[in-house]
Amino acid sequence: MNILIIGDIYSKSGRDVLKKHLNNIVAKNNIDFVVANAENISHGKGINKNHYNFLKQLKVDVITSGNHIFKVKETQEFIIETNDLLRPLNMYESLPGKGTVLFEKNGFKIRITNLLGTTFMDHANSPFEVLDKLLENDNSDIHIVDFHAEASAEKIAFAWNYDGKISALVGTHTHVQTADERILPKGTAFITDIGMTGPINSIIGANPDEVIYKEKTGLPTKFIPSENAGKLQAVIIRFENKKAKSIERIQVI
After folding, report:
1. 133, 188, 187, 123: which is closest to 155 by C-alpha?
2. pLDDT recorded at residue 63
3. Which domains does the chain carry?
4. What radius of gyration, in Å, describes the C-alpha atoms of the chain?
5. Backbone angles phi, psi at 11, to 5 degrees
6. In the annotation, is 68 catalytic?
7. pTM of the model
8. Which residue, among 234, 233, 236, 253, has the nearest Cα to 244 in the 3D structure?
């Protein structure tokens, strides 16, 4: 079982590079299941119905998200109609949508869970408590967690805590791909951050000018998505007998 997990898709540049390369990556690497984080796919924040459909047309199996999942108002309405668009499980329970989903593919029960970190982020319930509760009754063969968090230390600590209890933990949110992919001692595949599928010449997706202005002056500024050529960043996790055997970073321009 080979699973492709795509880093945060950012605006039009991210959509374009994904459309250009996804089919080839899937074919070349014998990919069985595709997960993509798409909380920034619509103009840099959120996901609208049109872009949800775009990902389904590209045969993305599960779409994860993060703190920007409800930035587009219509998402609150159509997320309840889907079984494959996740919002973080440890957000307020009253919010619409699911935070975890179980699929069957090629004889495997695959669970994808989406969680938010709590350091330097908007309020969320404890991801430890929420995942502990979920694991009490989980019967999946493969369980992958997209941990959408700001602090590297929080992601690493979370991964070590669940080493051997989940199949893989991949970090998202920072839009910068880290070079620390590995299999932890008890068998969990891990990377601090998958990176971003979006514009190369940008500051984590946005035009540099506006970001620099805010950093220099401290004044509020609207960030504008860069429309420069994109890069696709992702990881491929290969499983044998339900256990992660390798995790590989990829970057395609």
Report:
1. 188
2. 98
3. 2-252 (3.60.21.10)
4. 17
5. 55, -160
6. yes
7. 0.96
8. 236
Buried b (16+ CB within 10 A) or exposed e, 210-248: ebeeeeeeeeeeebbbbeeebbbbbbbbbbeeeebeebe
H helix intervals, the chain: 11-28, 49-57, 75-78, 127-135, 152-161, 208-217
- φ, ψ dihedrals at 99, nearest 5°: -110, -5
Amino acid identity, residue 210? E
Q: How many CA atoms lie within 13 A of 141 on its CB side?
A: 14
Percent of the chain with pLDDT over 70: 100
Could you read off the pLDDT of 166-209 as tens digits, one per residue? 999 999 999 999 999 999 999 999 999 999 999 999 999 999 99
Say what the pLDDT of residue 2 is.
Answer: 98
- pLDDT tens profile 111-126: 999 999 999 998 999 9
Task: Given the residues 21, 51, 68, 143, select the one marked as catalytic.
Answer: 68
Region of residue 244 (phi > 0: left; psi between -120 and 50: alpha; otherwise: beta): beta
Q: Which residues are annotated as a binding site for Fe cation?
A: 8, 39-40, 67, 148, 173, 175
Nearest-5° angle of CA 37, CA 41, CA 46? Answer: 90
Q: Residue 35 — left, alpha, or beta (φ > 0 → left; ψ -120 to 50 → alpha)? A: beta
Question: Is 177 strand, coil or helix?
Answer: coil
Please report the pLDDT score of residue 106 as a whole number. Answer: 93
β-bridge mates for residue 9, sequence order: 197
Residue ranges at the known binding site: 8, 39-40, 67, 148, 173, 175
